[in-house]
Amino acid sequence: MKLSQLEYVYEVSRCGSMTAAANKLFVTQPTLSQQIMNLESELGVKLFVRLSRSVIPTPAGEEFLIYAKRILSDVEKLKESMADYSTLRRGRVRIGMLSTFGCFNIINKLAIFKKENPNIDTRITVDQSKHLIEMMASHQLDVAFVMASHPLPEEPRLQLTKLFDSEIMALMPNGHPLGEKARISFSDLAEENIIMPSRSSTLYSSILAAFHNEGIEPHVISETSHPELFIQMVANGMGIAFASERVVAGNRHHSFLARPLMADLSQSIYFAVLEDTYEIPSIRRFADYIIREYTMEPGS
Are 101 and 145 in contact (CB under 8 A)? Predict the structure, then answer.
């Protein structure tokens, strides 16, 4: 049974004759008659009683029409719904990001996108980069902003666009003796209390490796990647922490010093989207917007 055959039966019933229905459907009368006979043969029932100049539905035909009208109505609603998505009158983008990204101007850009595209539903999930990539691979997220202090593992279906790099800095209390230095080495930190990023952070292994390269086992008093927490710990003289220059810039209202490291440590911020979902209009609109915005930023 074909959808076109449902349309043929409906139009014949509405017009009351094969000839009138054929004209409405822009098919020849023999083609229309043959299609309905093929359907009747498939179903094993007669749908119409043929009179000399008209046709009337049989009891089976009347019941067939009840279902045919419902199906054709649902198909029309389906077409309208899909048109809403294709023309962005409706849509959804599920976005993943890290908790530190409040300092990276990403939230402001999301707010602008939402204002410009009020019919696209945006939902935000906050987690670590590794988990965000896993959620994308299982189609729980559509796009994600992720961070890496080293190249991310290759995911064949993932399109990664680097948005910017951010240098890693050492954060220390105001008045700390190391604040007099232009750059901080990891050997300078051998006797310091250290606030490390969380172990699930991509930055944790890079900082630990930098300590070990100097033959130092850091005296770790805490592990956290929440800026509000580790910056307050630093400001209150509890230890030295590490953060990107953008996190530092976004938290200047706190009282602390920040100095660049001698070791070449930086974090790259990537925008990730799956190849097989990029062609969905709402996701493509969002991805193109983000990439354009960061490409246009000075120094990006």
Answer: yes
